[in-house]
Structures are given as C-alpha cells and as structure tokens.
Design a protein that fits this description.
alpha/beta, Hypothetical Protein Ychn, Chain: A, 5-stranded parallel beta sheet, 4 helices, 5 strands, about 35% helix
C-alpha cells in the first residue's frame, strides 16, 4: 500500500506539520510494508529548511524529517511554492528535494490513500 501525505501548513505555529510527521513515523514503525511519501506545499516548504533551533523539549521537524529519510520515506517540496517564498537557492534538509506539480499528480494517481494536513 502507498500512503501520500500532503502538508500545506507552516512548520511551527499550528501542529499540523508535526502531526503529519508523527503519523508518517508511526506508519513506518508499525506498518513497515506501507510506502509513505510526503509532499510539502505552500508554507509547508519552510519545513524543509535545515538548522532549525527549537527550545529544549519542543518538537523539531528537521530531526523528524531526518528520521523519516533514514526510514526510506520520499519527501518532496513544491518548487513553485519554494520560488514564491524565495527558497529556491537555499539548501534543504538532506533527503528533501524540490519537485513539481506533475510529480505530485503522479504520486496522487499511484497512492492508495492521500491525506492532507
């Protein structure tokens, strides 16, 4: 089974991105046979920026992304959304790459389930 998680919300402020990544981590841990893909859109492309510094005891999306990449989760960020926010030339977290709407469309077409946050 393939599960596609689409995240639209900023990294911090609400907990939508955090909860999406928690779900992705749980899926990989408890259902290793499920393929998980994550696509970042709109303000969620900011989730892919490295060197996030959060207070002690507070969740850190960069660490969560790194754990997901190590578990084989594909993570892509919308290139158009990154351009709109001036992120095109910035480095992203290792394992996260800029992508296109065509790639998202392909992932949606191939997914058994698509979830949005």
């Amino acid at each position: 089974m393939k599960v596609l998680i689409i995240i639209n919300d900023a990294p911090y402020g609400s907990e939508k991105a955090y909860n999406a990544l928690r779900l992705a981590l749980a899926l990989r841990k408890e259902h290793a046979d499920i393929e998980v893909q994550i696509f970042l859109m709109a303000d969620a492309v900011l989730c892919a920026l490295p060197q996030q510094k959060t207070p002690d005891g507070y969740y850190n999306l960069e660490r969560m992304f790194k754990g997901l990449v190590q578990k084989g989760v594909q993570i892509k960020a919308c290139g158009t959304c990154a351009d709109a926010r001036g992120l095109r030339e910035l480095n992203l977290i290792d394992g996260v790459e800029l992508s296109t709407m065509s790639q998202l469309a392909a992932w949606v077409a191939e997914a058994d389930k698509a979830l949005t946050f």
